[in-house]
Request: fold
Amino acid sequence: MTEQAKPASSRAKQDEALLAYKGVWVSIELERGHVHPVSWELIGKGRQLADTLGVPLSGILLAPPDAPIQETVADAHAYGADTVYVMADPILAEYRTQPYAKGMVDLIKKYQPEILLIGATTLGRDLASAVATDMETGLTADCTELDIDLSTRSMAATRPTFGGTLLCTIHTLKARPQMATVRPRVMPMPEHQQGRTGETIMAKLEIAEDDIITKVLSFIPDRDQDTAQLAFADYIVAGGRGLGKLENFQLLRDLADVLGAEIGCTRPIVQAGGMTIDHQIGQTGKTIRPKLYIAAGISGAIQHRVGVEGADCIIAINADPNAPIFDFAHYGIVGDALTILPALTDAFRRRLAAGQAGR
Amino acid sequence: MHVIVCIKQVPDSAQIRVHPVTNTIMRQGVPTIINPYDLFALEEALKLKDRFGAKVTVITMGPPMADQALRKALTFGCDDAILLSDRVFAGADTLATSYALASAIAKIGETQPFDLVFCGKQTIDGDTAQVGPGIAKRLGLNQLTYVWKIESLDINAREIVVQRRAEGGVQTLKTALPALITMLEDTNEIRFGTMDDAFRAARTELTLWNAAAAGVTDPSKCGLKGSPTQVKKVFAPPPRAVKATQIKGDSPAANAEHVIDALFSAHPGMQDDLRARTTQNP
Amino acid sequence: MSEKFDAIVVGAGPAGNAAAIVMARAGMNVLLLERGEYPGSKNVMGAILYSNALEKIIPDFRESAPLERHIVEQRVWMLSEKGHVGGSFRSDEFNVEKPDRYAIIRVAFDRWFSNKAKEAGALLICDTVAKSLLQDDQGRVIGVKTDREGGDIYADVVVLADGVNSMLARQAGFRAELDPANTALVAKEMHFLPPDVIQSRFNIGEKDGVAIEMVGSLTKGKIGMGFLYTNKESIALGIGCMVGDFQEGGLTPYGLIDDLKAHPSIKPLLAGSEVKEYSAHLIPEGGYKAVPKIFGDGWVLVGDSAGLVNSIHREGSNMAMTSGRLAAETIRTLKAEGKPFSAANLSAYRKALDETYVIKDLKKYEGMPGFLHGNRQIFSLYPELMAGAAATMLKVDGVDKKTKEREIFKTFRQSRGLFGLLGDAIKFARAFR
Ligand SMILES: Cc1cc2nc3c(=O)[nH]c(=O)nc-3n(C[C@H](O)[C@H](O)[C@H](O)COP(=O)(O)OP(=O)(O)OC[C@H]3O[C@@H](n4cnc5c(N)ncnc54)[C@H](O)[C@@H]3O)c2cc1C
Ligand SMILES: Cc1cc2nc3c(=O)[nH]c(=O)nc-3n(C[C@H](O)[C@H](O)[C@H](O)COP(=O)(O)OP(=O)(O)OC[C@H]3O[C@@H](n4cnc5c(N)ncnc54)[C@H](O)[C@@H]3O)c2cc1C
Ligand SMILES: Nc1ncnc2c1ncn2[C@@H]1O[C@H](COP(=O)(O)O)[C@@H](O)[C@H]1O
Reply:
């Protein structure tokens, strides 16, 4: 980026203003009493960045007063945060852009962090864009790696572009805070150091309910949705033509019940009327990013593959040892799905029975 | 009623190649398309034209050849098309892009007040999903992202109710117009324009705005100069060479045990996570 | 309410654009329909552009048209299993101020050509397919029906420039079905290479290009030809056979092109290239005898749709432009004279075409398609024999040249017999007379 010849003084003034921004912040997403695990993953990453820069790591928590704030703050300290800024207000009960952005921007302007990490959940992405625009700063989305370039003390954020066919490394040199969003399950979970303590700073949300135009009428959790929400499911089991008759899909449903998983299929199954289109996974179906994907009787054609490559772990069951799916699955079982699926269902049921001893 | 839709002309990402030596993106000869996510925004806007007779204006910021995307959008049935093109916009990141687009949309609003601005969920070349919210913040529009259904729209009461994708579920929100909506994918299917649409598209003169015409007051906030983020390096991800670990077991039951052992050891915490889920709804 | 134009042109290829430009310049209200997303998106062409036909429509085309390289060397190869024998014609003559042939890329060229039609005043509408012709009760063509809702469009005359399939004319019964024996299916790939690599491999300068025409055993005794043209940053490689031969011979287009890519004479030229595009397309090869009736009440056929291709010399796009221009000039004159576009009046188009190289060349090679059919060995045996002869003559193995010549003649006679050789020579000469 060609640096125009700015008069020395104004550039110095600008650099000096940037230097005022210190510390690494991580947004802690607490909604309906549950902290999204990506917040702890980012506390772990934030700790690393803060130690490299030699600056404090802080959490920022916006939540309604009746939320488990003490527990969350204690967990934040245990996972590595030095300080947690807390804004408790009933207005924050259900996520809305206006109040959350207002609260976060006020805190940023007051305490001036140099780096702000936010989980790339639908909440995080919505919030991060609004905050970044308000602060007129750089925001790098869905980062897969975050490091510090000590020569400039700026954050090197690496992210996919062109749909993942390429990666690029981005810096935010002349604006603060340097913002980045990171997808869940990209950064490792940090260690929970029981007994580690830290500071808590309460702050007031400077906005009234009647200043806020948008109202939340209702919230329906995914589990109660009528249509399958494959794109957002954590556990998915799917079947292909290899299961043969459509009745055999009952074996899939049995396994899905044990795992609390959603059921998916390949296009030929939808075309044969076995399942509706919202169950189809692949190029012209859903793109899934589950923690576990079990594929039974699926060959792994490219049009299916592009929809499943985002899964953390893929277990493929196929009678043909050189089925293409074995090229990208993590674990493969060569055999008849019609006998392996019931065996898997029984084994999982036993291993997951409540209070089952031994990990 | 007046609705504005932001679309972007992007290279067809399936054909992108990184030059093996210079590591730059080889865009030469790669066909350009309308950002696929923006088609869902276009269709949703055209549905409002069907229901309320809304006027649909489509706008894009890009190089002169981005007019092809606008021409294509017109054939679906849009009424007006504005091409925002100026050397000063070149190299813009999402912050600089939302500044230019917001200025242009405000300029449109001066003569033709608008009720809704539609954007796609994200672009396939940027994948950042920031331009929509950026425009909303700059123009004070109520921001509704990841919308998959407009439940109701009352023009006189200036009220809109939408269902949007929230974390772990679907939120129903009510807010006032003017608002900015980014549409979730797979919510509708883009229509094939009628012959009249095709004729109007071929005969419509595109409005070409440079920075000044778009009401941009501070050019230093545009293009590369106005972009806080700078791309230092572009490279191809390392190929994933490893193949599936074959589970060896002499019976289906043995196979099942071995694969679960491997799974739980490779993914600590998954057993507890599964156990927590299944005991909640036995 | 449906629209009415003076003329509708179906297809924005070389023929359609030429016709649209000429009529629009005459102030006629012209609609140019193209089914592709943009002109050129659906077209596959080698692609060598011959300047003469285009010069008559856009004399200064060289200033703005997207031209890849001007051809300075034309090679003709007869491929055998192991190599090829052939000749090449390279001369500074090609480097004249207005070169007569260029390598082009149709995606860019057609878009440029259609823009010229728009500049002339024609209304171009893409992404729209003309489904069928609208005819009145006397069978006169009065417009077209498209695949869009409310898609009936009327016109005084319809110029059918919809390419080799010529679906509209066939559907209306104006011409016969495609004859597999006289239609070639050509597969083509674009191989991308840095310009300096292309220039060093073909020993050409930055703006120069090489065109190689090939025939030989590669098409396994079936009638077929291949080509290799150099563009700025890519090499167009193509090979094809008669559709009929594909069906019988168990050949596939991509199989043929894979064989061609692996051929020892071709492989080194493509080394390190990256294939970015694969496409296949038909070429009318019936020659003069297969040219149908090209005019009727309210309609004319131009370009591939009229089968106007001289495959011996790989000339198609120039004939398309010339026929497009002549049809448009006939229509323009009738319009100016206020005469109806009846079959009788439109026959002037055919008369004009008869005077040009288009019909004269096709007539010259009238016998060729038959000859090629009857004498398949042209494609398999002779290239092998010639390559063998060249190898024998050139090998320095102490055998005297006289003995070598006797040996070569013996192999020729064994495979074709004395009379066979003579018969082939006479037929060949007559076909090329
Ligand atoms: C433009 C386009 C878009 C497409 N989009 C999609 C898409 O979105 N999603 C999608 O899924 N497909 C899509 N397809 C189709 C895709 O190309 C494949 O045809 C499809 O995914 C194959 O489905 P399948 O694996 O179920 O069947 P098959 O390919 O027939 O595979 C069956 C597999 O089961 C194995 N098998 C057989 N018997 C058994 C047994 N008893 N036990 C275990 N294994 C067994 C076989 O070895 C084989 O590997 C698309 C295709 C096109 C052209
Ligand atoms: C592989 C290959 C290599 C060749 N190499 C050469 C060469 O080197 N030099 C040369 O001079 N010639 C060459 N030719 C021949 C040349 O491509 C054709 O002769 C020429 O393109 C004919 O032009 P045209 O306008 O008649 O038809 P086309 O170029 O086929 O154009 C027809 C147009 O009409 C459109 N269309 C068709 N049907 C409809 C419809 N129903 N509604 C709306 N639009 C429609 C099509 O999309 C297309 O754009 C080659 C052909 C092939 C296949
Ligand atoms: N250059 C642009 N011109 C018009 N709209 C754009 C442009 N860039 C992004 N958008 C809109 O903003 C949305 C999100 O883009 P992004 O924030 O880049 O992922 C896109 O789907 C478009 O609707």
Residues 370-432 of chain C form one domain. Chain C is about 40% helix and 25% strand. Chain C has three domains: 4-66+105-175+289-355, 180-284, 370-432.
